[in-house]
Prior knowledge:
With 322 residues, the chain is α/β, with parallel strands linked by helices. It is built from 11 helices and 12 strands. The protein has a 9-stranded mixed sheet, sandwiched between helices.
Amino acid sequence: MIELINPANKSAIEKTDKGYIDMYGKIFPVENGVLRFVEEGNYTDSFGFQWNKFQKTQIDTESKNNAFSKGRFFAETNWDKEDLEGKNVLEVGSGAGRFTQIVLDYTKANLYSVDYSSAVFANYRNNGHHGERLKLFQASVYDLPFPDNTFDKVFCFGVLQHTPDFKKSVKCLIDKAKPGGEVVVDFYTINGWWTKISAKYILRPLTKKISHKKLLSIIERNIDWLMKLYYFFEKIGVGKFVNRFVPICNINGTLPKNLSKKSLREWVILDTFDMFSPEHDHPQKLSTVAKWFREFGMEVTFSGMVTYCEKFEAAIVKGIKK
Length: 322
C-alpha cells in the first residue's frame, strides 16, 4: 500500500469519516469514488468536458473494435503482464480510463490513477467496479499525493504536451519512480519546421478561447462535410499534404480500423475537439525528452517511434531510474 501525503507540505494523510486529513487538519474529500486534492476549474477543463461527454468512446470493452487501447498500451510499454503482478503502477493523466481498464483487466498490478480534470469521475464510472485494486485521485502532475521514489512503474500517455511546463512534468513523473523503477511516456513530436504549419496550430489561438459547448456544437454541425472533404483528398492522392489544412483530425492516421459509421463519426468529433480545445499544446523533439530523462537521473532504454495495431505510430521515451 502506497502512503498518501498532502502534496503541499509532504505530511502523511489518514482516512477519517470526513475524508482524508493531514496532521494540520487539512481535509481532502472523497467524492464519487475519487480522492480530491484540487478544486474545480483549471487548464484541463476541456478534458473534463470531453471525457464526461465521450466517456465510453475509447474504452475497448465498449467498442466492437475492442483491442485498440490494449494494443497501444502493451506496444508502448512492452511490459510483461505476469511481471506486473503485485507491482505498484502510477498512471498520470487517465482521462476516462481507457488505459486504466487495460491495466486492471489484463494484469494483477495495483493501480494508482490520477487526472487533474473532472474526467477522473468518468474513469470511476468506467472502472470503479474493480474495487481496491484501483485507487483514483484528482490531482495535478505537479502536486502528486505520493512520496518520491515509490512506484515500480509509471506511465503517462497523451498528456505531457497538454501541460504548461513539459520539462517540469517529466521531472515530476520521474520523481515518483523508485530506484530501478521504469517510466514510460508518449507525446506529440516536432518533426520539423512544418509541424505547426497545419489547421490545428493555425486555428488553435482562436478555438481554445471558444466555450467548450459552442466549440463542440460547431464541430458537430460541420463534421459530415469535413469528413467527405478529407476522404475526397485521400482518394485523389493529395490527402497527405492537403488534409493538413482541413480542420479535422487525421482519420486514417490515428483512429481504429473497422469502426461502424456511427462510431467513426463519434471518434472523429472527439479527436477533432481534442485538437482544438486544450489550453496547452506543446510538442517536443524525441531527443529533447530523452535528454531530460537523463538529466533527471534516468537510464534511457528507448527513444523513438513505436508501431501499434499494425499501422499506427507513437513517440515514446522509456527509462529506468538509477
